[in-house]
C-alpha cells in the first residue's frame, strides 16, 4: 500500500514513479518538512528494483517549484535540509536510475536546482527558469552555481546567475538545458513519453550509461574515462539482460528485460 504524503503525491505506474510536489498555495515552494518527506520518497525509489524511472513535477499549472519557502524562513524556520539536498535530490549523487523533470510553470531558485539535478528537462511553453537568490541575499548553493555552467556556456550561465533574470522554456531549449518544449499543460505527458522511450532500453544498460557518464566526466583525461569500467557497467556485462538484448535482436522480437 502506498504511503500517505503531506507535501507531495506519489504514483507508481508500471516501471515509472511520478512525484508531484504538492504545495500549490505557495507555488510548490519547499520547507524543511517537505525536504524530509521528499528525501524518503527518493530513498524508496532508489531501493525499489521494480521502479526504473522517475518523473518529478509540480501541482497545478503555475509552478514546478518556486524554490525556498521564504515565508517559512522569515518566520524563523531552519534553512537546513537533508544530506540528499534540496527536494531530497540535488545532492543525491549515487542515483543511477534516470529522473525526468516535467516543468509545468515557474522553476526558480531551488526549483530550478531540482530540475537541473534531473537527467532530462521537459518544459511546458509557460515554463520559467531563474536563480533570483542574490536578490534576496542568498546564492544558488543547492547545485545551481555548479550545474548550470556544466550544461550551458560559462558566460551565459553567469549572465543568469549574476542577474537573476528569468528565462523562458523556449530560451532554455536554445541555451541547452531544456530537452523539449511542449504546449502548456502537457509537461507531464511529454515527460511520460520520454520515459516510455527509455523503458524500451535495458534498465541495466541505462544505469550503466548514467553512472559512466557521471563518473567519467570527473576523470582527468578522456583516455582515463574510456579505460575505466565503472561498477554499473560491470554489472550490466554480467546481467541476463546483456544476453537478452542481442538474442531478441537476432530473433527479431522486442527484448524482455528482467533487470537481472
Helix/strand layout:
Layout: E1 8-13, E2 16-21, H1 32-47, E3 53-58, E4 63-65, H2 70-74, E5 99-103, E6 106-108, H3 110-117, E7 120-124, E8 128-130, H4 144-151, H5 154-163, E9 167-168, H6 169-175, E10 180-182, H7 187-199, H8 203-216, H9 222-226, H10 231-237, H11 240-250
Parallel strand pairs: 2-3, 3-5, 4-6, 5-7, 6-8, 7-10
Antiparallel strand pairs: 1-2, 8-9
Number of helical segments? 11
Rounded mean pLDDT is 94
Strand percentage: 15-25%
Q: What gyration radius follows from the Cα positions, in whole Å?
A: 19 Å
CATH architecture of the largest domain: Alpha-Beta Complex
- Name the helix and strand elements from N-terminus to C-terminus, one letter apiece: EEHEEHEEHEEHHEHEHHHHH
Q: How does the overall form come out from the CA principal axes? A: globular
Largest sheet: 6 strands, mixed
Q: How would you classify the helix and strand content by structural class? A: alpha/beta
Determine the fraction of residues in helical runs and give it as a percent range: 40-55%
Looking at how many chains there are and whether they match, the oligomeric state comes to single chain
Low-confidence stretches: none
The top-level CATH class of the largest domain is Alpha Beta
Strand order of the largest sheet: 1-2-3-5-7-10
- What is the count of structural domains? 2
Q: Terminal Cα separation, in Å? A: 25 Å
Q: Which fold name fills CATH's third level, the topology of the largest domain?
A: 2-enoyl-CoA Hydratase, Chain A, domain 1
The number of E-state strands comes to: 10
Q: Looking at this structure, what is the CATH superfamily of the largest domain? A: 2-enoyl-CoA Hydratase, Chain A, domain 1
